[in-house]
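Example for tutorial group B:
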């Protein structure tokens, strides 16, 4: 499978990308940046450097943060120095278990300041707001279920 083919198979797309779909696709074909999802809220930056460093030289990791609490909210961006290292990560790290969760990596068109914050109404990830199952690695029940279980304090 070539790098271009793996891009076509990628499910993740930044819906807030500033530019055309063609420009986004061009950047995805050449990027050395990955979006990493399904992380535990308790995964540390050090753990991420250790895991992703096995695939190549990591330039930086940007942790996804709850936009209100500034606590980790289950995703990050990993920037490698080279496309080759990021391809190694897509091949060998995607789908591995970290902190008892199967993580997923997808190509990203490049990190821009501000994208590290969760886009959900409550500050975290949208998918965590609608989750109806209990997931200790991602803070328990989803926000909607929590609101039904816990009465609002005036």
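The residue assignment follows.
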């Amino acid at each position: 499978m070539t790098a271009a083919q793996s891009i076509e198979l990628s499910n993740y797309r930044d819906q807030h990308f500033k530019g055309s779909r063609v420009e986004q696709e061009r950047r995805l074909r050449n990027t050395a940046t990955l979006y990493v999802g399904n992380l535990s809220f308790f995964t540390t930056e050090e753990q991420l450097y250790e895991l992703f460093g096995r695939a190549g030289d990591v330039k930086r990791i940007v942790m996804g943060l709850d936009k209100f609490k500034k606590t980790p909210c289950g995703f990050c961006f990993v920037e490698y120095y080279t496309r080759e290292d990021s391809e190694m990560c897509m091949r060998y790290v995607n789908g591995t278990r970290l902190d008892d969760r199967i993580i997923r990596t997808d190509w990203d068109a490049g990190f821009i300041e501000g994208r590290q914050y969760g886009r959900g109404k409550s500050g975290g990830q949208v998918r965590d707001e609608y989750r109806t199952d209990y997931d200790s690695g991602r803070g328990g029940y989803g926000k909607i279920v929590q609101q039904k279980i816990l009465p609002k304090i005036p």
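Strands lie at 33-37, 58-65, 72-80, 97-98, 101-102, 104-108. Compare this with the pattern of hydrophobic and polar residues in the output above.
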